[in-house]
Structure formats: structure tokens, C-alpha cells
Amino acid sequence: MKSMTGYGYSEYQDEKIDIVTELKSYNNRYLDLYINLPPFFSSLEPVLRNFLSSRIERGKVELYIRVKEIEEDSTVSIDRGVALAGIDALKQLALIAGINETINLSHLLRMEGIIKKTRNRDADYFWKILEPLLEKTFLQFDESRTIEAVKTGEDIERQIEIISKAVGTAEKFASSMEDDIKKNLKDRFEQLLGDMADENRIYTETAVMLVRFSINEEIVRLKSHIEGFKAEISSDSPQIGKKLDFICQEINREINTIGSKSFKVEVNQAVIDARDALEKIREQVRNIA
């Protein structure tokens, strides 16, 4: 199990170059990648996206790469064709404007494209340095997600035990709820009809009420969902966060049904406790990848 919240940072430096990689992530329903690179690194963006998407399933993930060249390795050249065209254009402009002025170097320096700067270090050069640095950053990032997930898992286990206890309370009073239904119906019929009360009618009405207000089926399903939740959270299956969220929805449905059927104070309090614990679980599950 991994948390969607993580952070990693690494730095490489030699006499020529300084590279910093920073990787962080936050909660998000899907995988959302944001990669911030120097312009001359743009050709590496598809490689970096593949690196991250093959290792991370969910979350808003931000990768920042900062590069400082301590000793720049570039070649400066002059585009002769652009320079000559620029000179010709300036002469024509002076002629059209009727200005008799000597064309000098400062005029040409204002024109783009005459002087060209070519970076001698290509993407392959940087990738040889960046790849092991990125691996190091990711290991740190992934370790932080694991540590966070352990804390999250411990809290979830505490809350699921609260729900289990609440289910136990509901189960304890389920039979007495049925006894109360039977007794109340029988007393009501006898109050209204006295000796004329039809025993078969009482049984029929009692059966209908028991179907409407019995919580036994909900308790059985809740126990099953809780066991499934515990099994899932201890597994290493992919998309575990989505699976746990689905189970939480099923647990919530059964808890609400019990709450709508219950007329016992003890069961109602157990439902409140279970709802509170489940809400805390759902908040934590949103942070699981």
C-alpha cells in the first residue's frame, strides 16, 4: 500500500554542471503529471513521463528539474547569409528614409539570427547524468509514500475496529428488537380487539414487521464487507485505494439501513459511532494510491 503523498529530492554537481531533481505528489483521483524542465530539456519530457507513469498509479505528481551550467559548453557562430541580408535591408531602409548614415556593428547586433549559439551538450549527455539521479529521487519519494501509508493504515485499522465493535452491538440487540416488535404488535391487537384478536392475523402482521425492521441481513453483509476490507488493505493489489473506497460505499449503505430500521437507543448510538469511524476511513482512503 502506498500513500499518494510523497516527496523526494536529489542533487548532482561536478565542475561543469549542477542538476537538482525534486519530486512531490498530492491526492488526486487519477494520475496527473506536471513536469517542469529547462527549455533545452524538452526532448526528454516523453521519457520522463514514461518513467513516472510506469511507477505511479494515482495522484497529482510534480517533477521539477533545475540545471545550472557552471562551465558552459557552447559554440558561437555567425550566419553569413542573415548578416548580408541584414546589411542589404538596412541600406534599402536608409535609402527609402532618405537618411545618410553609416551602417555599423551595433545595428546588426540588434537583429536576431545573425549570431547563433549552439549547445554542445545534447540530451544524451544530460540523460546519462539525470537517469541515476532521477532513480535516487524516486526511491526517496517512494519511501516517503510507504512511511506515510503505514501511518494511514494504522489509523484505518483503529477505525475499522470501531465499526466492528458497533456491528457487534447491533447484533447483540437484534434479537431483542424482534422480541419488542412481536410483543408490541400482540399488545396492540389485544388492546384494540381484546379476546377477538385473531392469532393468525397477529402472526401475519408480525412477520411483515419483522421483514421491515429486521437488521440481521445487514449485519451479515457488514461483517462480510469488513472482512473484505481487512483482506484488501493488507494486500499489495493495484488500485487498492479505489477498491477500498468501493467497499466503504457498501459499508455505508448497510450502516444507513440499520440506522433507518433501528428503534433501540443502543443500536442508534452504535450507528453514530460507525458512521463517524467510516467517515474518517474514507478521508484516509482518499490518500491511498
What gap, in angstroms, lies between the N and C termini? 7 Å
Indicate the overall shape: elongated
Structural class: alpha+beta
- Main-sheet strand order equals 1-2-4-3
Percent helix, as a range, is: 55-70%
Domain tally: 3
Low-confidence stretches: none
Q: Taking all residues together, what is the mean pLDDT? A: 86
Largest beta sheet, briefly?
A: 4 strands, mixed
Order of helices and strands: EEEHEEHHEHHHHH
User: In percent, how much strand structure appears in the residues?
Assistant: 15-25%
Radius of gyration: 36 Å
Number of helices: 8
List the helices and strands and how they pair.
Elements: E1 6-13, E2 17-26, E3 31-36, H1 45-53, E4 59-69, E5 74-78, H2 80-97, H3 105-109, E6 115-119, H4 123-193, H5 199-213, H6 216-233, H7 240-261, H8 265-285
Parallel strand pairs: 3-4
Antiparallel strand pairs: 1-2, 2-4, 5-6
Helix pairs in contact: 4-5, 4-6, 4-8, 6-7, 7-8
Written description of the protein model:
The chain is of the alpha+beta class and 289 residues long. It folds into three domains: 6-72 and 124-145, 2-Layer Sandwich (Ribosomal Protein S5, domain 2), CATH 3.30.230; 74-119, no CATH class; 148-285, no CATH class. The chain contains eight helices and six strands. The strands form two sheets. Strands 1-2-4-3 form a four-stranded mixed β-sheet. Strands 5-6 form a two-stranded antiparallel sheet. Strand 1 (6-13) and strand 2 form a beta hairpin. Helix 4 (123-193) runs antiparallel to helix 6 (216-233) and helix 4 (123-193) runs antiparallel to helix 8. It is elongated, with a radius of gyration of 36 Å. The N and C termini lie close together (7 Å).
